[in-house]
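Example A, followed by Example B.
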Amino acid sequence: MRAPGAAMRRFLGPLLCLLALRLPAGSGTAARGLDVASYRERVRAMFYHAYEHYLESAFPYDELRPLTCDGQDTWGSFSLTLIDALDTLLILGNVSEFQRVVNVLQEGVDFDIDVNASVFETNIRVVGGLLSAHLLSRKAGLEVEAGWPCSGPLLRMAEEAARKLLPAFQTPTGMPYGTVNLLHGVNPGETPVTCTAGIGTFIVEFATLSHLTGDPVFEDVARKALKALWKNRSDIGLVGNHIDVITAKWVAQDAGIGAGVDSYFEYLVKGAILLQDKELMSMFLEYNKAIKNYTKFDDWYLWVQMYKGTVSMPVFQSLEAYWPGLQSLIGDVDNAMRTFLNYYTVWKQFGGLPEFYNIPQGYTVDKREGYPLRPELIESAMYLYRATRDPTLLELGRDAVESIEKISKVDCGFATIKDLRDHRLDNRMESFFLAETIKYLYLLFDPDNFIHNDGSDFDVVVTPYGECVLNAGGYIFNTEAHPIDPAALHCCRKRREEQWEVEDLMREFYSRKKTKKFTLKRAPDHGEGENAKDSKDASSEKAGEKRNSKKSSHSLLSCPSQSFNSKLAVLGQVFLDNT
């Protein structure tokens, strides 16, 4: 048998490491007497209260207006809530509704429309949601076409939507405009000023598209935009909030980790993990040094002037609450927990996170008192709980359920909280409530969900390029919480050498059946009920072969001999090469 080449080793190393690692099922779930199963079912009920009222009162509009029980288009007239909620349905085990919605979207969504759309929002919500649903469609029992996951109707929809965004990247710097007309391209007179996150939040979706379709244009433009931001950082290593994409001049020079910047940092880390890309991780780690040096004070992160490092805004923004989860992905769990606990104190003070919180004064900022049911603190709790099993993180989930149900629930869904001080409501339910907030809450309370697979189970599928491994875990959530299976990026390579390597890898696994006592079974594909608990029940017998490895006593950091390119995030940790 040929020794695996460099390309295949990037895949072989993480997979073998994943197969050696597994937490006992359900471990840590009885924290401090909290009834995890009960809260999980309450979260499920919250989802259906919101989702069913969207279908009844708002579809086909983008979003539900819960106070008036009607709908509105917000980000482009895509039936956005339906796209955003699709993978949440499967995570909750609702196979039949997932299948129904896929058919509705194929028949009803049209991107060839005269609409001005946010490039950023269309990417993370529409392209990300369709890619995730495409990669989960076989697990959901859909009959997939020959060549899947390298082809399929949802993939074609995602590609069509992404191509509508490409004209925005045609700038001298490679940094995209913030808005594009889906029919005509960039409008004459469109402002060239775009926020940093609106430039640096494409690599997860666009690289996935390039790997699945074989068209490099998507990954190329995403990388060029990332590198343009890196090139234009300040001498002290910081980036500002808004930049002119034509001249590369910074228009807003506030540097921080929150609104307008946040998902740029997130995508450097997640892009590095997804693509096993050392350069992206190195970029983030350099930013992280500057962020710690200039913006961090007592485990809070302030806003500073990007060239001088002087404090410009001593505020915490609710969007910054993703940061502890991101820290956990690079293994910085102790610092992550300290910052998380700071943010949790704000939640306890108000029953939610106000958009802006003045740290010295310990109170909200004028006209920024609202909480639009954002997911970021819950997201961090989910990541950190996977890494630590600290019961405090479940308590945040409990508090979130209690607060949202008490303050935000109305007859037609859940309403944005306009002011946390007096609990006034606003007539909007953003699609991210079903895509992110509910999803992260459910996953926090469902430790055995297929999303948390540690690599001990996986499916083998046959593609035109040979066999490949899917559903082994290690899912990368985009910034709208749409999970991407990183293994799928290895399924559609056209180089014959890699095809041979994949086939050799699978033969090696099969040969270990006797020596390692693996058990081989067919993976079921079709669900047995609308609310099946585990979406493993949603896979049909066509789904290829699955193995269960025996429980291992290896520690979480048990891949010391692998180079950076052979390492992957496992249970909230990223293995870094410190040599």
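Example B, a separate protein, is given below in the same form.
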Amino acid sequence: MDMDMASSGMFVPPQTLGTVLCCICGVPMEPNPANMCARCLRSRVDITEGLPRHAAIVHCPECSSWLQPPRSWLRAELESPALLSLCLRRIHKPLSRLVRLVHGEFVWTEPHSKRIHVKLRVQREALHGAILEQSHLVEFTVQDRLCESCSRAQASPDQWVAAVQLRQHVPHRRTFFFLEQLILRHGAAARAVRIKETSSGVDFFFGHRSHAMKFVEFVSGVVPVRRRSDKQLVSHDTKSNNYNYKYTFSVEICPICREDLICLPPKVSNSLGNLGPLVICAKVSNSILLVDPETLRTAFLDADEYWRTPFGALLSSRQLVEFIVLDVKKKTPEVTVSGSRYCLARVEVARMSDFGQNDTTFDIKTHLGHLLKEGDVVLGYDLYSANSNDVEMGKYKGFELPYAILIKKSYEEKRQRKHGKQRKWRLKRMQMEVDDGARGRGSEEKRNNEYEEFLRELEENPTGMLDQMTIYKNKDHRPSETASMLSGDDDLPLDELISKLELSDDEEGEEDEDMAQ
């Protein structure tokens, strides 16, 4: 109707909201049920009456966790949303009974003051149905007290309840380095009381059996394992009939690693559709990806199938030999399996040790046809001169071994150009004790060399494993124009994978201390 009146040209008086005078101070105001302005209403009615102004919160100084009554502990940083939620839960009952919470935020205080200030905006019905909003400051006193895990560890490091023993029977630690990064990224060992590195694996100690079981479930989800558990009686209270046990979980990781050459047992080969018998382990997660380098047939082998008929590697990555590519012949179309590309091709190669010494060459099939060109250096297994006494190989009558099987392209020339140059990225390390059996100058040097090989492998295969890790910037990296000109376009695309986080000084100190042990 208003639109019709406006269109017809009729005069429409502007609508104004009526005002009344405050019954106390006489100031014009919008009418409300109390007939008082906001200033007078706030001076006569305090809606925060009955709300707590002081409260206490318990903090563990060792692990930076906060007590969530009655017995659980929550890890949270200062002025974090998790800590704000915990503080509000401490005063939830009077808040929900008296007022309506609109907003809450921290007010900055000195970190060493042992005080946390939380500013609240609350609403409440005042006189005659008028809604009044007011701010309210609550001061929380921080009381330091060790949590159960930290007090047990501080009293005696051996006071653990459950232990997880991770073992893998291989001559290297590549799997443990990779598993360490997965554990750090997902915080799987955050509740561990102590971590000890042994000569054949790593031991994790927990203050509760449930924490150890959760950690075992995590490891079972990322690598193929078999496990067993045992318990030992520590004490028994005959009056209350309470038993105290120490639990031990033994977790054995599958000895098959990436890039291993495997001769499948006939029973396993038949169950996988007559795959192989010579296959390459292309990827290890909670299952094993096997690739036949001569047919590009693939199969996944889960943990249950493997441990039903366990087998070992015919040759491992420590036995790789350098070959030079002389000719690349016909190729087949590329195929993609589990994020990796393969292309079947026929190539002519010669061992680097024979190159220029004799005319011995090998004409072989390879699954790396999409990567290789003439003059490339590749790493592979020399089956022509290898002396293998594998039991499974003797079960295949009339099977002829190929002269060589190529595994990956070599980046040795690129390594030499980058020799002595710092990496622009780094990995975080777990703080571990070193067992007496794993100490010694030779053991430490071997461990450092294996870790350096692991970092090189990450550089050469960034899309294979780096996307499952958290990569940090290296603050000590100083790029130089000469190094960047020499590297050219050969640098691997790691910038998009590097996290924008940096290791703090405390974390770097812990890492340096761990490496020095």
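On Example B: Residues 482-493, 512-517 have pLDDT under 50 and may be disordered.
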